[in-house]
Recover the amino acids of this structure.
C-alpha cells in the first residue's frame, strides 16, 4: 500500500506507508520504486503468494484445532487463537495486494481501500499486542507458582474478555489510518491510474512523520519494552528461587508453555524489528531508489509479512498437543 499526499513537494508526494523506506527524489507517484526494476515486479507476487498460501493453511489449521478439540481450550490457547485469527485476516487480503501490485492500479473502490489498509495496519499492532498479553499471562503464572498461589481469575472466560479488549484497543489505534485511507489519482499520470493511499492534510510532511512515530511508539516500543521487562523479572525470579516442589512443577508443565510463548515472541521481534528500525531511517535520512535500497526495502516488508505464516510451525514443533492435533488433521481430514 502506498502513502501519497497531494502536495507539490516530492517528499510528501511519494510516501509508501507499508514499505520501510521513503524515496525523496521520486517525482512520479504513479510509478512505484519497483517499476524501474522489473525483477521486483515478478518476484514480489511469488513471495506474497507463498506467504498467503502457507499462512492461510497453517493459521486456519490452528483455529480449527483450538475450536474443535476440548482439551485445547486453555487460557494460553485462546490468545494463540486470536493471534491466528489476526494472521488469517492479513493473509486473506494479500491476494488483493498482489492484484494491485500486478495491475499497478487500484480498481477495487474506496470502501475496500479503507478495509484493506485498516487490516494492513491491524497486522502491525495485533501480533505484538497479543504476544504482550501472553507474556503478562506467563509472568503471572510463573510468579504464582513461585509463591505457591492460585490464579483464581485466570479462566477461559477471562481470557476471552481480555482478547476482546485487545481487539477494541487495536481498532481504536488503527482508526486514524482508516480515516485517512482513500483513492488517489496522480496528476502526473496520463493513464489516470488510481492508488489506495494514506492521504494526509497539510502540512503533509509533518503528518507523515507523526504517523511513523505513532506506529513506532504504539506498535513497537511500548509492547516490546513491556515484554522485555516482564521476561527479565521472570528470569531473575526463576534464577533466585529455591528448587522445591513448585520449581519442579514449573519445570514440567508450565515451563514448556513459557518457552513457547518466548520463542513465538522472539520470532515476532525478528520479523518486525527491521521494519520498525527502518522507520528511524525513513525519518532521519534521504534515500535514493537504487536497486540495493529497494531490494532491502521489500525484503524487510516480506520479512514482516512472513511472521503471519511461521507461528503454526512453532506450535507444531514445541507443543505436543498441537503436533498431535495437526497430525490427526493430516491423517483423517477435518
Amino acid at each position: 500500500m502506498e502513502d501519497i499526499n497531494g502536495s507539490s513537494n516530492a517528499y510528501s508526494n511519494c510516501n509508501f506507508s507499508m514499505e520501510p523506506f521513503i524515496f525523496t527524489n521520486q517525482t512520479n507517484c504513479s510509478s512505484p520504486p519497483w517499476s524501474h526494476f522489473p525483477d521486483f515486479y515478478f518476484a514480489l507476487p511469488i513471495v506474497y503468494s507463498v506467504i498467503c498460501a502457507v499462512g492461510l493453511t497453517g493459521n486456519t489449521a490452528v483455529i480449527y484445532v483450538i475450536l474443535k478439540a476440548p482439551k485445547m481450550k486453555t487460557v494460553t490457547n485462546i490468545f494463540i487463537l486470536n493471534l491466528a485469527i489476526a494472521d488469517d485476516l492479513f493473509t486473506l487480503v494479500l491476494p488483493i495486494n498482489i492484484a494491485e501490485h500486478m495491475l499497478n492500479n487500484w480498481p477495487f473502490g474506496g470502501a475496500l481501500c479503507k478495509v484493506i489498509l485498516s487490516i494492513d495496519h491491524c497486522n502491525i499492532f495485533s501480533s505484538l499486542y497479543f504476544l504482550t498479553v501472553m507474556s503478562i499471562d506467563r509472568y503471572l503464572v510463573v510468579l504464582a507458582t513461585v509463591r505457591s498461589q492460585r490464579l483464581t481469575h485466570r479462566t477461559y472466560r477471562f481470557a476471552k474478555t481480555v482478547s476482546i479488549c485487545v481487539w477494541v484497543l487495536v481498532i481504536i489505534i488503527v482508526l486514524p489510518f482508516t480515516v485517512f485511507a482513500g483513492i488517489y489519482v496522480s496528476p502526473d499520470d496520463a493513464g489516470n491510474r488510481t492508488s489506495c493511499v494514506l492521504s494526509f492534510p497539510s502540512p503533509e510532511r509533518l503528518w507523515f512523520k507523526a504517523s511513523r512515530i505513532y506506529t513506532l511508539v504504539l506498535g513497537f516500543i511500548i509492547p516490546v519494552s513491556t515484554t522485555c521487562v516482564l521476561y527479565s523479572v521472570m528470569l531473575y525470579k526463576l534464577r533466585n528461587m529455591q528448587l522445591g516442589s513448585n520449581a519442579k512443577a514449573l519445570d514440567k508443565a508450565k515451563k514448556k508453555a513459557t518457552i513457547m510463548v518466548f520463542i513465538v515472541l522472539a520470532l515476532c521481534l525478528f520479523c518486525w524489528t527491521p521494519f520498525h528500525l527502518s522507520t528511524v531511517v525513513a525519518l532521519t535520512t534521504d534515500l535514493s531508489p537504487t536497486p540495493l535500497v529497494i531490494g532491502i526495502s521489500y525484503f524487510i516488508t516480506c520479512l514482516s509479512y512472513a511472521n503471519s505464516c511461521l507461528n503454526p510451525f512453532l506450535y507444531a514443533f514445541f507443543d505436543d498437543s498441537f503436533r498431535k492435533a495437526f497430525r490427526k488433521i493430516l491423517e483423517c481430514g477435518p
Q: What stands out?
A: The first helix runs from residue 10 to 13.
